[in-house]
């Protein structure tokens, strides 16, 4: 059974610092890995999708890496801003129908 | 139009009520999903529809009844719910079931009294 773990559970940094969020998964046979952002009481916003054949994916200040062999993905957010405060979730599909196994998330607070 | 729209955003119902949640996607996707997010728990998949056909029912109690009349609309019919069913219900869509990026709606916050 696929298990997804995110460490740390919470993170507080001053504005301008780089953020490093970790995601690990137990079964390396994944099709892809997706990172999401969730604001309190809101839905999920897709940030990046990395296919299993890719090592990294970039979008603006966000960069996600994928190491299937070690079962890890890392989300880097450069030059953090207060608007980056949210919960960040990673997820991997566990069957051919799109069932995603989510991590519990990392709650990020960026202080001005 | 935003990609995935859910209504209502908030719903309070008694255990004997019948209500429905609605989801509409404007992305031309073929697959739609219902997820449940309870406090302090990871998101849980409830149902998957591919081209209006239910392809996965993740052991969800029968008091939750999904309906997908076409590839753009998805409903979740609720009846005789329990207080522990209170949660954020999220709808999502993807180009095809099982592949590609998932896009979520804002969710419907359900409170069962």
Describe this protein's structure.
The complex is a heterodimer of chains A (112) and B (113). Helices cover 0% and strands 57% of the residues of chain A. Chain A has no helices and 11 strands. In chain A, the strands form 2 sheets. In chain A, strands 2, 4, 5, 9, 10 and 11 form a 6-stranded mixed beta sheet that branches. A 5-stranded antiparallel beta sheet of chain A has the order 1-3-8-7-6, with no helix packed on it. Chain B is mainly beta and 113 residues long. Chain B contains no helices and 11 strands. The termini of chain B are far apart.
Beta content of chain B comes to over 45%
Which regions of chain B have little confidence, pLDDT < 50, spanning 5+ residues? Answer: none
> Alpha-carbon distance between the termini of chain B?
33 Å
Radius of gyration of chain A: 13 Å
Task: Please summarize the sheet with the most strands of chain A.
Answer: 6 strands, mixed
Shape of chain B: globular
Listing every helix as H and every strand as E from the N terminus to the C terminus, the arrangement of chain A reads EEEEEEEEEEE
Multimeric organization: heterodimer
What structural category characterises the helix and strand content of chain A?
mainly beta
Task: Estimate the mean pLDDT confidence of chain A.
Answer: 94
Largest interface, with Cβ-Cβ < 8 Å?
Answer: A-B, 26 and 28 residues
As a percent range, the share of helical residues of chain B equals under 10%
**Total count of strands of chain B:** 11
- What is the share of helical residues of chain A? under 10%
Q: The biggest beta sheet of chain B, please?
A: 7 strands, mixed
List the total number of helices of chain B: 0
Low-confidence stretches of chain A: none
């Amino acid at each position: 059974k696929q298990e997804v773990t995110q460490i740390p559970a919470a993170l507080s940094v001053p504005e301008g610092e780089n953020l490093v969020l970790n995601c690990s998964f137990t079964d390396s046979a994944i099709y892809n890995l997706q990172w999401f952002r969730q604001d309190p009481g809101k839905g999920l916003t897709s940030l990046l999708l990395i296919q299993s054949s890719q090592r990294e994916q970039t979008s603006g200040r966000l960069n996600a890496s994928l190491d299937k062999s070690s079962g890890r993905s890392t989300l880097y957010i450069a030059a953090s801003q207060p608007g980056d405060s949210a919960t960040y979730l990673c997820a991997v599909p566990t069957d051919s129908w799109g069932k995603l196994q989510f991590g519990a998330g990392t709650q990020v607070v960026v202080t001005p | 139009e935003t990609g995935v729209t859910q209504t209502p955003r908030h719903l309070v119902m008694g255990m004997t009520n019948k209500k429905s949640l609605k989801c509409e996607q404007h992305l031309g996707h073929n697959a739609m999903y219902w997820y449940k997010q309870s406090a302090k728990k990871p998101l849980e998949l409830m149902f998957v529809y591919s081209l209006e056909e239910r392809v996965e029912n993740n052991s969800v109690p029968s008091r939750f009844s999904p309906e997908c009349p076409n590839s753009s609309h998805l409903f979740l019919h609720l009846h005789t719910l329990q207080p522990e069913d209170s949660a954020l219900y999220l709808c999502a869509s993807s180009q095809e079931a099982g592949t590609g990026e998932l896009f979520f709606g804002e969710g419907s916050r359900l409170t069962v009294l």
